[in-house]
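Problem: given the chain below (168 residues), write out its structure.
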Amino acid sequence: MRLEKCWFCSSTVYPGHGIQFVRNDAKIFRFCRSKCHKNFKMKRNPRKVKWTKAYRRVHGKDMTQDSTFEFERKRNRPERYDRNLAENVLKAIPKIDKIRVTREEKHHKNRMKGKKEKLQKEAARELEQGISLVKAPSVLQRDPSLTLPKIKVKVSQQQSLENHAMEE
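Solution.
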């Protein structure tokens, strides 16, 4: 069973599925679904369409260089049948997949490393600005425990002078 790759989104095209387009110069394009075929006909660049593998690779969201991808490419090449080789390959496939999954998880963790602190800072800033929307100002004056803990923000001397001039 030969599994092809979609020309547009790089997903697998199983036998009997998808659309095959042959250009005048005899170049074959395979598409997994009509969505990919229509985007191809509209002359869209897969590297600029956000849901494609090409976009994810170009923008650093998926791994691009890894030795496990080479085994996947080798699997598609036809070779003379050798029972021992086929047995070894079938044993190696799960191990290679496991290695690839762990490397992808590690890549994802590295990408999302500073995301949590950034989201917390943004949430604290938004709460600080709109605390009167959460609690009425009169309640905050009566019970100071409801106010947010003070967060130190560095302000340059020039900005504070400008703000003082605006108040006057």
